[in-house]
Specification:
The protein has 222 residues and is mainly alpha-helical. It is built from 11 helices and 3 strands; from the N terminus they run H-H-E-E-H-H-E-H-H-H-H-H-H-H. The N and C termini lie far apart (52 Å). This is BTB domain-containing protein.
Length: 222
């Protein structure tokens, strides 16, 4: 039998549950934001000065067992530690290569400052990337097969970077960082932004696959 009081009570309960759900979702979002601010603050506190003295950071000690020479300058490192972070150096230091038996190894086609930056991302006095160094760090992390350095650059780009969306998209596309690429494509959500992207120098550097995805997105937008 139809009972308006029961229906009203049911409706009131549903409204109460919905209000509770909204409050709970808001509280979860508040906690997430608070945690992110805490992480970002910690990240900022650890960010060192821009000018780093790699001569002091990579000085010889009882823990180093090989010297890497870049542009005539020496960086003292530990083979096992570097091999753990880089498949490139793990292979280079192996018995299959003559470098594995050498005390000094020359690293070519990279500047001393850039290579020092790369190594410093895994050392105790860790150097964090910024918008000026992130792209170079990604390039070298790719070349020297150092995923930890790549992840560090990715974290910066996702959480601290002020780079334009067009630049972010190119970096995500070029270095296979799905999180950055997907976010950049999502943020290209208007015809104006699409036109801005196409006029940017980064557009010509995008892969055909990403350009095709952008075309599909443009069709959806218009």
């Amino acid at each position: 039998m139809f009972n308006p009081r029961n229906d009203k009570a049911k409706s009131d309960n549903e409204k109460g549950y919905e209000a509770l759900r909204v409050l709970l979702a808001a509280e979860i979002e508040r906690i997430r934001n608070a945690q992110k601010r805490k992480i970002d603050a910690h990240y900022d506190e650890l960010t060192p000065p821009k000018k780093i003295c790699y001569d002091e950071m990579f000085v010889a000690s009882d823990k180093t067992d090989v010297v890497l020479i870049v542009e005539g300058k020496k960086l003292n490192v530990n083979k096992s530690f570097l091999s753990f972070h880089s498949d490139y150096f793990s292979t280079l230091f192996s018995a299959n290569f003559k470098e594995g038996q050498m005390k000094e190894i020359e690293i070519k086609e990279v500047s001393y400052e850039d290579f020092g930056l790369l190594l410093s991302t895994i050392y105790p006095m860790q150097v964090f990337p910024n918008d000026e160094t992130a792209e170079k760090l990604l390039e070298l992390a790719d070349r020297f097969l150092m995923p930890s350095a790549k992840h560090l650059a990715e974290h910066h780009l996702l959480n601290q970077s002020k780079l334009e969306n067009e630049k972010m998209m190119m970096l995500g596309d070029r270095y296979g960082i799905k999180s950055i690429l997907e976010r950049s494509i999502r943020q290209t959500d208007s015809a104006e932004k699409m036109k801005k992207l196409k006029k940017s120098p980064e557009y010509a550097k995008l892969s055909l696959e990403t350009v095709a995805r952008l075309f599909e997105r443009f069709v959806d937008i218009v």
